[in-house]
Amino acid sequence: MKISERIEKNKEVKAMIVAAHPDDAEIGMGGAIVKMIESGWEVIIVDLTDGEPTPLGTKEIRQKETDTASKILGIEKRFCLDMPNRYLTATLEYRRKLAETIRIHQPDILFGPVNEDYHPDHIEAAKLIDGARFEAKFHKTDMKGVPWWVPKLYSYFSIHKMNYDKPSFIIDISDQWERKFKAIQAYQSQTNNNSFKSTNLLERVEVIFRYFGQRIDTKYGEPFISNEPISIKNLSIMNHD
Predict the structure, then answer these.
(1) pTM score, two decimals?
(2) What CATH number does residue 134 fall under?
(3) Please, which pLDDT band fits residue 198 given cuts at 50, 70 and 90?
């Protein structure tokens, strides 16, 4: 059964969200994650690094914050692949590590950061996801798991740089906004004394996702870019109500 048919019939869909650091998934698509779980999807978050060092954080603090955020969103499966924060690179070793994770968990849909960003870890994460997605389908290999091709890959936006391509679609997260925002607030070591010019991180998050909500005539929205053309079989999707 194709993904679109499973979604339409309310069958379980498995989504894997890959993030360079803990809090990236919450900031970029925390509302969509809640919405997926509410719809009965299985959601897995894969953090490539533990996000440390940072000015106010430690490995122990960051893990506690990640656990709290996951609980708020309703995430039951979350893994860290222990790649180096600040020095993440799309090496063959790390690509294979992520490919094995894909082969083991066999997601239907893959999410990752957009490939244009100011943060070099985000840029390298996007490269890793593209490579690992392809490598995961290899036969005649000693990689763990079984050959697996993820048919859908979508990219979520970062708040570091907003001069991105026009989104392919925007998800209405108005009803999920409160939980998304609480999950981001769980990362106190990252949100305290963290500023972008004249606006602190939490204020910036709210402004950005309210802006995208206004783009679709709702209160809050999360933008995504599709890496392949989007197929429309049911014209009801074109209804803007």
Answers:
(1) 0.92
(2) 3.40.50.10320
(3) very low
